Amino acid sequence: MGFYFVAVGSAFGLGNLWRFPFIVSVNGGGAFLFVYIFAALLVGMPLLVGEFMLGKVMGKSSTAALNIRSWRLVSRFAGALCLIVLAYYAVISSWVLHFVMQLSVRSLEFGQIDPKVILEALRQNGLLQVALVSVHLLITTLVVLKGIELGLEKWVSYIMLIFVVLLIFLLVHTLSLPSAGAALRYLFYPDFTKLGWPSLMHALGHVFFTLSLGFGTMVTFGSYLRQEELLPMAAFRVTLLDLLVSIAAGLLVFPVLLGDPNVQAGPEILFQSMPVLFQQTRHGSLFGIAFFLCAYLGALAASIGLFETIVSNQMDQLGISRTRACWRGFLVGLGLAIVPSIVSLEFRWQQWRGQDVLRTIDDILVNWLLPLSVLAFCLHIAYCLPKSSQQKEFSYEPSALTLFGHWRFALRLLVPALILIALGLQIWGCL
Ligand code: PHE
Prior knowledge:
The chain is mainly α. The chain is built from 19 helices and no strands. The chain has helices at about 1-10, 15-25, 30-60, 60-65, 70-105, 115-125, 125-145, 150-175, 180-190, 200-210, 215-220, 230-260, 270-280, 285-320, 320-345, 355-385, 385-390, 400, 405-430. Helix 5 (about 70-105) crosses helix 7 (about 125-145). The longest helix has about 35 residues, at about 285-320. The radius of gyration is 21 Å and the shape is globular. The protein starts with a helix and ends with a helix. Phenylalanine binds near residues 10, 16, 85, 210 and 215.
């Protein structure tokens, strides 16, 4: 069970709660959800099997598993992506942390709170943002410092359970709002005319981000798996659970978005819609605090997964102790996190191709750099791992063995082709 909690804990996070509703809203709703589900099952799941396999077969973290000739560059690139995402993630986590604190401190005047003003105040206060980012990174470092079993598994399992109960309760509430019908139609009725050239890449990029693919995280976790664990089953469970949590987040956010003209689509969507929802609920301030606290803990679990990857890579690569690797990671992460904090402060009003700075960073990271890393991992797993080791992972159960051919086809041809097509469409859309 421990493995599932860690893998799901790494998959589940701000990607599901914050990024998914925002990316669905900028891509026009239902049709995008359709493409996204297709991308998760056809591309994400086979890749997840592959990354688990690479870690399990090599029994090492991603850097060590890829530490062969020309692939070393790929592992460096993935390592750099981990650090950049850790920093960027820390900034959004600091927003969540800020909401937990504001809702707690101002619970008596909860009804009058304007979520837009809270977020804006934080985005104008660079010092506060840097302080919150430091706190977040420090907590992450301390958990990873304690070692994987003691820190991760126990924490993540509690967080997940509380969150699922809370999510179900809130869903019952949002689905009884008058705008719920419109939201269901928006989310589940596919209107393909709303899709744009980059939509396929947005769907794939988000699948990679939310399943933590292309970072080496899942390779590292795969190396912790027991010998007889059936990988396709593990990947299926993680993908399905991740998908369900994302859809649940969409169902929470969209009834509010469509029912309140003040809530905007885009990166602020979660932070604006959820407080509005709680203001309409009895004991809303308590639910608000619980929701953002769980969201923060989810973000923390994902950050821990990222940080564990960075630390275990460094330990394997440089032969240094866990303690040294942790503090090095902390310092570099902090240095990098200050950049997006300051940039989002100084250039808040700057637009680039109609997007603000934060969205531009997100776009470059998830829709351009990450697919390249995933493509490299995919080709390595498909063409460099011996066929016999690949097949062995499917042979623990006869029914799984019939999937092997399909999986191999997906990894050798389908996935690389789809990534290249999506990149091509995205470039075409930029011209
Ligand atoms: N998958 C996480 C999310 O959806 C983000 C993440 C990426 C975590 C890479 C770990 C590694 O929020």
